[in-house]
Design a protein that fits this description.
alpha+beta, 16 helices, globular
């Protein structure tokens, strides 16, 4: 592997020093470093106390208190940590990044006082339940991924209650209600200002269904390949929608787009079924799996968005409609829209769409290995500092993935490497 555990431990200490130095006084920074390293220690419940027991069995309470105070009462913003982390990844691992993945994940919570907790839908839980929802963006490729930005979504039940916001110590600039899509765009904009290299954005239909989200991604200078629902409407291939000129001097002027050849907007589901019958789908292998190549049947067509046409919204610019045959779905297909250039190959479209799987693995590793979903406090700042520490350790493990993950599907774990060294 080329690394010993001692070498990696020293590298971790140096990595944490680079990203935490100067955020607080030296004692607080030391405690933050302990906290971050503690997240990587396998413990039954990932509480601060259990981390303190594992790290310092002779002075458990003293260490627990220092770590708790550093995270809960820290005077620094989690964004300072993530900005430093972004700089590290953008400058040192840009070649590992194929795309930026956007998604959100739910954390089950009891009670009503933890910031953002509410009965709401969580895709992670697959139902409406009491939970917090976190929006995040990750740098991803088939071999590399790490979280570079994250923020709690606040439902309107929270943003409309000053008492709850005050109690959770939500910052003044986070008190207006923002949709998950708006939070995601804000995260991307900050990353672009921080030197993010040009890479496409990938996301599921929860974001792709929003034309405002797609337009905002384009407005900040990034392309996209995003999933959309089967009822998304588009102008079919060959249509040239435009608002007809007014006829004569009387009568109301036209306000909607029409196609001169009589074509009408169609749901992507109808287009998929028609082209499937035509036999024009092609087999595409998008990557090598652990046992066999991963492949599927696809077709890509040039279309224009017809969303909100009845509200007077004009047709969008020409984009790719990528259709995947997927018999596990009720419609039999999966759909994506992409702003990639017209010259883009079908294989590139498919490979980019499929790379989104890495964000699901990140969530799994962050929750199962690094205590991402185990914050014990009830303040906005404390929660986000905890999340930043988890993201920081995850990034270190991702950068040193060859040392921590001998198999392609094995999760990264500091203790695993430590055990190898002892054995």
């Amino acid at each position: 592997m080329g690394h010993t555990y001692g070498t990696l431990e020293r590298r971790l200490e140096s990595f944490l020093e680079d990203h935490l130095d100067g955020l607080e006084n030296e004692e607080r920074v030391e405690a933050l470093s302990w906290y971050c390293q503690g997240l990587g220690i396998p413990t039954p419940d990932k509480t601060v106390r259990s981390m303190a027991i594992a790290q310092s069995p002779k002075s458990v309470e003293a260490r627990r208190q220092r770590m708790q105070r550093a995270v809960t009462h820290g005077r620094f913003s989690h964004e300072q940590v993530l900005e430093r982390l972004q700089t590290t990844v953008f400058e040192g691992a840009a070649g590992d990044i194929d795309a930026y993945a956007i998604d959100d994940t739910g954390i089950a919570k009891k009670g009503t006082k933890s910031p953002g907790v509410h009965r709401q839908y969580s895709g992670t839980m697959g139902k409406i339940d009491n939970c917090q929802v976190l929006v995040s963006f990750h740098a991803v490729s088939d071999e590399f991924s790490t979280c570079l930005g994250i923020e709690l979504y606040l439902p309107e039940a929270w943003t409309s209650s000053k008492a709850r916001l005050d109690q959770a110590k939500v910052p003044d600039d986070r008190r207006e209600h923002r949709t998950k899509s708006k939070i995601a765009i804000d995260l991307l904009q900050k990353a672009v200002r921080n030197g993010a290299p040009q890479r496409p954005v990938v996301a599921d239909a929860g974001y792709g269904d929003s034309r405002d989200f797609r337009d905002a991604v384009s407005a900040i200078g990034l392309s996209y390949v995003v999933a959309v629902s089967s009822n998304t409407t588009v102008w079919p291939p060959g249509a040239e929608p435009r608002v007809p000129p007014r006829e004569g001097k009387v009568g109301r002027p036209f306000s909607r787009d029409y196609d001169a050849n009589g074509q009408s907007p169609q749901r992507v589901e109808a287009i998929a079924k028609r082209y499937w019958k035509s036999g024009k789908f092609r087999e595409v292998i998008w990557r090598q799996g652990s046992q066999k190549p991963l492949s599927g049947k696809y077709i890509a067509l040039r279309v224009k968005s017809a969303e909100r046409r009845t509200k007077g919204r004009r047709a969008g610019p020409e984009v790719w409609l990528l259709i995947e045959r997927d018999e596990s779905r009720e419609s039999g297909f999966k759909y994506y829209l992409s702003s990639f250039p017209e010259t883009t190959s079908l294989k590139k479209l498919v490979r980019t769409a499929k790379v989104r799987w890495r964000i699901e693995r990140d969530y799994r590793d962050l929750k199962q290995k690094l205590g991402f979903d185990r914050y014990e406090g009830r303040t906005w700042g404390g929660l986000h500092r905890h999340l930043a520490m988890a993201a920081l350790l995850h990034a270190f493990l991702s950068i040193h993935r060859e040392a921590f993950s001998p198999g392609p599907d094995e999760s990264m774990d500091l203790d695993k490497e430590s055990k190898r060294a002892r054995d």
